[in-house]
Write a structure and sequence with these properties.
DNA-binding, disordered N terminus, Tscrpt_reg_HTH_GntR, transcription regulation, Four Helix Bundle (Hemerythrin (Met), subunit A), WH-like_DNA-bd_sf, Arc Repressor Mutant, subunit A, TF_FadR/GntR_C, 2 domains, mainly alpha
Length: 253
């Protein structure tokens, strides 16, 4: 079968929305590490992100940290408060509902397009991702499951052929992760593996209408799992980013 919308080289199966781990400027490394920690809920909403602590954690200047934080703030993942520093954003209940409303408008469109364009390589990547989700669920790795769940949605969007909507969805998915961190019910996993599997089966059949309807149902289910609970916790930034501090990829911009 002719392959269309192939996955870009350098993208990760775990997170196709993320950039490559090849040598990058320090501010890009910091941005990627903090973004990953937010999406995987290792940095919960409301966590303070002092520039001096992050600079020490990554072994770089505060200028480079500030550049990364400004980029995260542009994506509405953190809030930059005048004279009080940065914190991981805390979406309101109203914002949470609006994010799911936006995703219900966009994702069925993307999955319909993907159903007519997706190739064997992309389908195999999605199958591998769902398998990894099941493995993460079996070992109780909630952080990895959340990461892989977002990757599933990003990979479908990347196969749609609409880069503008796919990029926008990537931002919505990141912001949705904050919503899940705040409002999820502790006993419930945030994304149904069976629902991902059914969307994948519809894509494999090239059944655009079924894939779109299954995606809407899936998003409805994810939203229905939310409540208004969620307690903050302290995070040791030095320990969290210790691995990146020693990474050779840190270069001045």
């Amino acid at each position: 079968m002719r392959q269309r919308g192939s996955v870009q080289a350098g993208t990760s199966l775990a997170d196709p929305c993320a950039s490559s781990r090849r040598r990058r400027p320090a501010d890009e490394v910091i941005y990627g590490e903090v973004l990953d920690a937010i999406i995987s809920h290792r940095l919960p909403p409301g966590t303070a992100l002092p520039e001096d602590t992050l600079a020490a954690a990554f072994g770089v200047s505060r200028t480079l940290v500030r550049k990364a934080l400004q980029r995260l703030a542009h994506g509405k993942l953190i809030e930059l408060r005048r004279n009080r520093g940065a914190i991981v954003a805390r979406p309101s209940v109203e914002e949470a509902r609006e994010l799911f409303d936006a995703r219900r408008l966009i994702e069925p469109v993307l999955v319909r397009s993907a159903a007519s364009r997706i190739g064997d390589a992309e389908l195999e990547a999605l199958r591998a991702g769902v398998t990894r989700e099941r493995e993460a669920f079996a070992r109780g790795d909630r952080h990895e499951l959340i990461r892989l769940s977002g990757a599933f949605h990003c990979r479908i969007a990347a196969s749609s052929g609409n880069r503008v909507l796919a990029d926008f969805l990537g931002e919505l998915i990141s912001r949705t992760s904050l919503v899940i961190a705040l409002y999820e019910q502790p006993a419930i996993w945030p994304c149904s593996l069976d629902e991902h599997g059914r969307v994948l089966e519809a894509l494999a059949r090239r059944d655009a209408a079924a894939a779109a309807e299954l995606m809407r149902h899936h998003l409805d289910h994810c939203e229905a799992q939310l409540d208004l609970s969620g307690e903050g916790r302290a995070v040791d930034l030095m320990a969290l980013f210790a691995h990146a501090r020693a990474e050779p990829a840190l270069e001045a911009s």
